[in-house]
Amino acid sequence: MRTNDIQCSPGQHELDENIRLLAHMESTHSPMVSCYLSLRAGRDNARDYLLSQKQQIAARLSGFEQQEFEQAYDSILNNLETSQYDCKALAYFSRSFKGGHFFRVLQLDILLKNSVTVSAAPNILPLMLLRHEYGQYLQASVSEGAIEICELGLGTSTMRGMANLISTSSEESRLATARHMLERTMRSRPQLDVILVGEQSFIHGVYNNLPRLLRRRVIQLIPRQPGDTDFKILKVGKLTHKRHREYLSGNQLNEAIKSGHVLEQLTTGVSGSLRALNSYAAGRLYVTADDLDLNAMCIDAQKDSVLDVIRLAIQQAVPIHFVSSNRIMHQAEGIACLVADKAVMHRSGFRPAANSLDMVA
């Protein structure tokens, strides 16, 4: 593959497309440099970080690998020096010519930590975590004067609905107008959760008058207090949405663990998950971000890693669920795989390792 590409700030769909592209790239002997770079402190600070990391990583490599690494790394440094970016962070993926030249830059409107990884394939774990951290949802800000409904995700905000409530003559009519606008917007975006923000009694009135099926999609009502800033509300909403999704996925995993007939289909850890995926027997993959090691500068191509599991799951279109850390997931290296069903397991010849149930006993 030969490509040279600069991507503007991606929405969730574009980010998913980039993740799939990177996950399907073949591993080669030529090192792939994956660099996540914050621009919060300015370009000079980012360049200084890159130069310091280059020396540390180059010292761990030798011969062909070192030469290929330096060529790929210099492409990143050159791009940072010669390009102008109006974003909060950059994600670079660079490989030299002998490994099949590849160079891609993603501009991100999200704050992230600096990191550089050298591996046989792109390190997409930070992108997966960003996607999880900034999931899409609807936030309806309701007051006696107006209702504004925005779709939030990946550092962006898109207005999806708005109605003026001042002209209505009574609280009952204001509630009806706000409910109608929210209901119409929710039906137009049926896959998104909803958070209601505003004066406590008013948002409860809007919520209680929604149809029952739509009420199920409202995951939190946030009363706005005097002095609350929009930034604080957004921060609370983002965290609430993240924890809600982790809670649902965690419940799904816990139910699987508690079901005696499913226990034999759960395999844990990197090696167990890879065995299920390599047998095309994986049904769902569970990951906990707290137990992942994102600080490794060099990922050993000779050693299986969480990155290998994630890449293979994406290649096979296996659903990936993030869950909160717990004893099982911590002991399982932050990753566990649920086999699709017994029939698939039998046809594939997959058998969980004898000790794979120790985590869930």
Give helix % range: 40-55%
Unreliable runs, pLDDT <50, ≥5 residues?
352-361
Strand content: 15-25%
Q: Please, how many helices? A: 12
- What is the CA-CA span between the terminal residues? 46 Å
Number of strands: 14
Sum up the overall morphology in one term: globular
Order of helices and strands: EHEHHEEEHEEEHEHHEHEHEHEHEH
> How are the strands ordered across the major sheet?
1-4-3-2-5
Question: Which class best fits the helix and strand makeup?
Answer: alpha/beta
Tell me about the biggest sheet? 5 strands, mixed
Cα-based radius of gyration, to the nearest Å = 23 Å
Mean pLDDT: 84
3D architecture notes:
- It is built from twelve helices and 14 strands.
- The strands form three sheets. The chain has a five-stranded mixed β-sheet, with helices on one face. The protein has a five-stranded mixed β-sheet with strand order 8-7-6-9-10, sandwiched between helices. A four-stranded mixed β-sheet has the order 11-14-12-13, with helices on both faces.
- The two termini are about 45 Å apart.
- Mean pLDDT is about 85; it is low at about 350-360.
- Helices cover about 40% and strands about 25% of the residues.
- The radius of gyration is 23 Å and the shape is globular.
- It is α/β, with parallel strands linked by helices.
